[in-house]
Design a protein that fits this description.
This protein folds into three domains: 120 residues, no CATH class; 179 residues, no CATH class; 136 residues, Glycogen Phosphorylase B (Rossmann fold, 3-Layer(aba) Sandwich), CATH 3.40.50.2000. With 463 residues, it is α/β, with parallel strands linked by helices. Pfam families: Exostosin_GT47 (PF03016).
Length: 463
């Protein structure tokens, strides 16, 4: 594998909230400056940083010097595009306005966004500028293919959309034109095709997964200069399989800057919100992209809270011990009887309980959102999807595991007018979790790409 050596580049890494503050209050380093690493606004002494709050020039936070107009390399052209995007986002934040040359079909507004001006401008800049190279190496089914249905379906949908459909909008014509690089392998397919048959616990060893992943990176890193140019900091993967966080475990130092888009976004198991990004787990039905909508208006939602599922993991066991079959308002089932309709019950519920299973992610949050049911997240260390942009506190409730016995009291204390606001916010945020083929602005595939785009804005490579 190529040497994990002393390549130098600038890393500007932090969640979007910090990114937006940084965009407003500080200047990005010049491309001619010595490489620097930025991990937050308040930096420790070894790092040099010019903060516009301490600058005598009030305009220094709005403008970063352009690259001199000489014969620019492809890298310089890409960095200049990103510089323009950062400037546009800064201006949108400062002046609480946005600029766009495209027909406006949707304008983000309201409480569900951490900063709607920044998000809209950032999404606009992404649509205008962002180019991704999906590596062509490898053969199906381990790469360029993936499941398109059930709980791992977003993995295959994204691989197919980016590799086969998006063509003109986000796909770079040549790798030299790309701002980011996609590794189109499917962890779900690797497990399905390579880890068969399973005859003993030793067959679950991750060595085969590591070898396939490492070999693929080795191939593209030897064939192209881009991995070594950034140490993988502008390369990403997308996967919903439970094993996906472990792909880089065999060489953690080599992959320390590699971007992982994961459903299993557990911060206690190595998920890094400033580098990785959380994607929603969506149970995609066969033959269609979403379940039937059976949501009722608020006045017809007669169930206070609902959950139906198996006792996967200790959180659900605690939930069942307290609430299974014990209360008419808190309806908790480990299985539905003939005649009960899962989506109909969600549609008649005000709140939908979303306890983690064996892993932190589950499709419950998205199922709730699809049906207009306010998600009640019950988890530990779960970095919720698209939290860079979305303020989950405005359309969901978080209940700690040690408060499971108090679910009814907590939900009943929520004033009716607050519940109505949350319901309206759920209906509004739904567009960001919908799977469309082909993808449409602001849908879940665009939100995944926007998560990559934000992290690429946080990286400045040297000329």
């Amino acid at each position: 594998m190529p040497n994990d050596s002393s390549k130098t580049y600038c890393l500007l890494r932090f969640p979007l909230v910090l990114l937006l503050l940084f965009l407003v209050f500080s200047s990005f380093p010049n491309t001619g400056s010595p490489p620097q690493h930025f991990f937050s606004i308040a930096l420790s002494p070894p790092f040099h940083h010019t903060n516009a709050l301490q600058s005598s020039s009030p305009s220094s936070s709005l403008y970063s010097p352009p690259i001199p107009i000489t014969k620019r390399s492809n890298l310089e052209k890409r960095e200049e595009e990103l510089r323009k995007a950062r400037t546009a986002i800064r201006r949108a934040v400062k002046f609480k306005n946005y600029t766009s040359n495209e027909d406006v079909t949707y304008i983000p507004t309201g409480q569900i966004y951490r900063n709607s001006f920044a998000f809209y401008q950032s999404h606009t800049e992404m649509m205008k500028r962002f180019k991704v190279w999906s590596y062509k190496e490898g053969e199906q089914p381990l790469v360029h293919d993936g499941p398109v249905n059930d709980i791992y379906g977003i993995e295959g949908q994204f691989i197919d959309e980016l590799g086969n459909v998006m063509g003109g909008r986000f796909s770079a014509g040549q790798p030299e034109e790309a701002h980011a690089f996609f590794l189109p392998f499917s962890v779900a397919n690797i497990v399905h095709y390579v880890y068969k048959p399973i005859t003993s616990s030793a067959d679950f060893n991750r060595d085969r997964l590591h070898r396939i992943f490492n070999d693929y990176v080795d191939v593209v890193a030897r064939k192209y200069p881009f991995w070594n140019q950034s140490n993988g900091a502008d390369h990403f993967m997308v996967s919903c399989h439970d094993w996906a966080p472990e792909v880089s475990d065999s060489k953690p130092e080599f992959f320390k800057d590699f971007i992982r888009g994961l459903c299993n976004a557990n911060t206690s198991e190595g998920f890094r919100p400033n580098i990785d990004f959380s994607i929603p787990e969506i149970n995609i039905p066969k033959g269609k992209l979403k379940p039937p909508f059976m949501g009722q208006p608020p006045e017809n939602r007669t169930i206070l809270a609902f959950f139906a599922g198996r006792a996967h993991g200790y959180i659900r066991e605690v939930l069942f011990n307290h609430w299974k079959g014990n209360d008419r308002d808190i309806q908790v089932y480990d299985g539905l009887t003939k005649g009960q309709n899962y989506h109909e019950l969600i549609g008649h519920s005000k709140f939908c309980l979303c306890p983690s299973g064996y892993e932190v992610a589950s499709p419950r949050e998205v199922e709730a959102i699809y049906s207009g049911c306010v998600p009640v997240v019950i988890s530990n260390n779960y970095s919720l999807p698209f939290s860079d942009v979305l303020d989950w506190s405005k359309f969901s409730v978080e209940i700690p595991i040690d408060k499971i016995s108090e679910i009814k009291r907590i939900l009943q204390k929520i004033p009716h007018d607050k519940y109505l606001r949350m319901y309206k916010n759920v209906m509004k945020v739904k567009r960001h979790f919908v799977v469309n083929r082909p993808a449409q602005p602001f849908d879940v595939i665009h939100m995944i790409l926007h998560s990559v785009w934000l992290r690429r804005l946080n990286i400045q490579l040297p000329s």
